[in-house]
Amino acid sequence: MPLTQATGPVTLALGLLSAGHPGQGLLDCVATGLIGRVEDHIASLAARLPDADITLIFDEPGLSGLLVPGFPITRDEAEHVLGKVLTRAPVPAGIHCCADTDWSVVASVRPSLISWDIDSLGAAFLAHTEAIAAATWEGTGFIWGVAPTQTQPLPGDPGVRLQRIVGRLVMAGAKMDGLLEGAMFSPACGLAGLTEGQAEIVAHTVVRLAGELAAHG
Q: pLDDT tens digits, residue range 12-28?
């Protein structure tokens, strides 16, 4: 399943606000423009990979701001714009956020995949396990970010951390085969800030950890 990526609407809107946009009508404008660009991008990929089942991931680091007082985008606004772009995306679409956030917003729009950094999940994750669990019964799967995007030693055993997260979701009522069966493993976040050699180290770490986790069930 080939994956491709686009900047998510909340993160894109934050960039425009920082650049001086007054904000009025911004989210709807962002959603419309983003979907148009995504449709062109997916059409280009489909022409080159006609038999591939492409999945799109919206990259949303800006969602971490939902936990910050005074954030310029409300919870309801974030839910609305995310739902709009996911509904109109031409292929199954997921959401990536490499920080803790209001996961009930992410879960409410029923993304095909939730991609996250297992080391970043904290109090906000624990507060919204039931909302995430409910999404698993409607087809939401996971990309588990198991390897930090640095070359420093791993902080403890990622297998233990992953099992704790899975356990929390199971206790909240998640569908078991929506958690690890058919799931994917990835770096915690993007590799853009790394050298080619560092990126290779992180990639090899993901492959090794995925094999170890699969071997231990």
A: 999 999 998 888 899 99
Say how far apart CA 128 and CA 122 lie, in whole Å: 10
CA 6/CA 74 separation, integer angstroms:
22
Q: Using an 8 Å Cβ cutoff, are 10 and 81 in contact? A: yes
Question: From CA 46, how far away is CA 52, in angstroms rounded?
Answer: 7
Q: How confident is the model at residue 192 (pLDDT cuts 50, 70, 90)?
A: confident
Q: Which of 105, 112, 57, 54 is nearest to 82 (CA)?
A: 105
What is the distance in angstroms between the CA of the first residue and the CA of the last residue of the chain? Answer: 22
Residue 92: predicted pLDDT = 96
31 by Cβ neighbours in 10 Å (0-12 / 13-18 / 19+) ranks as buried
